[in-house]
Design goal:
This protein has ten helices and 16 strands. The protein is α/β, with parallel strands linked by helices and 292 residues long. A six-stranded mixed β-sheet has the order 6-5-14-15-16-13, with no helix packed on it. Strands 8-2-1-12 form a four-stranded parallel β-sheet. It is globular and about 60 Å long. The protein binds flavin-adenine dinucleotide (FAD). This is FAD-binding domain-containing protein.
Amino acid sequence: MTLRVTCVSAGIASLSAAVALRKHVSSIILLEAAGNIEQMDVRAAGLTLLPCGTKVLQKFGVDPIRDVQAVRVQSILELDWKDGFLRRETGPLPPTCFTAHLGALFDALVKKATGADDDGHGSPPAQLFLGKKVVDVDVASGKVTTEDGSMYESDLVIGGDGVRSTIRRAIVKEAIVQPSGLSVYRWTMRPSDWAHLPQYAKARIDDLVGPENNHANVIDAGEKRIVTYGCHESGLVTGALLFSDYEAPRTTEDWASAGSLAHPLLHHSALLQLEYLWERVYGEGSQVVVGK
Ligand SMILES: Cc1cc2nc3c(=O)[nH]c(=O)nc-3n(C[C@H](O)[C@H](O)[C@H](O)COP(=O)(O)OP(=O)(O)OC[C@H]3O[C@@H](n4cnc5c(N)ncnc54)[C@H](O)[C@@H]3O)c2cc1C
């Protein structure tokens, strides 16, 4: 079929659309605002791949373990905020539940979308253009204009440009984004980041998120929550501390903004009350709590 497609962005949504469509269309281009795909802020996070997401990836020919180095997550442990003891375990989870690193997932999808055709359809690879922030789209003609003045014409425009989508605004005139009222500190850390700690601290961290541990941990205190899990076969661990915007020094709608380790530790003394979980570890090196 002769159909030219423009995907606005190279986020997960656009990349997935490009992978799904490439064998059905004559050309696909992806216009991504970020200048460098290796340094996109969004990469430095973990992602839970639930059965529906896994099924889609498998349909794309992307195997979570082989291609994304994902970790099979067996259960979710809910731990008490005050003492770190197990409150509840949900599981075993279906065998198609994984945790993954967003960067690894990105790379696998970019390869599938822009790499050589590997399913014998002879479909042309999608072309990825970086540093192309879309500023306007003419919905009727399919013309897309980028900040640098370039114009791209196609038969179908797919808006994968996130929560503040330019495309959505152009189509449905709706631009309201409702803040959740929550901010989040996110981190990733490698086993080498806690290798210098005393044995008892290492053992506890290994117990929670070490390479042999395939659980997602949720430490909940109602208005605050810490989520941690291993997200890559290399042992990389991801975590997030969610808390109310009211407690944040400043908030933005970006994936990344300046923050400091002092803030979550200062304002979340509850972190330090996690005797079993964090207290001693914190005493040895706060980077273990908030990572890099
Ligand atoms: C802190 C945080 C933690 C999260 N944790 C999880 C999790 O653990 N599990 C999970 O499943 N989900 C999680 N999510 C949600 C998940 O990241 C999003 O649902 C997912 O990234 C949405 O993908 P997307 O492709 O629609 O948009 P995005 O990932 O937002 O990608 C949008 C892309 O569009 C580009 N772009 C924006 N505007 C333009 C423009 N005008 N022109 C060109 N390009 C543009 C951006 O640069 C970006 O690359 C988290 C989100 C956040 C913020």
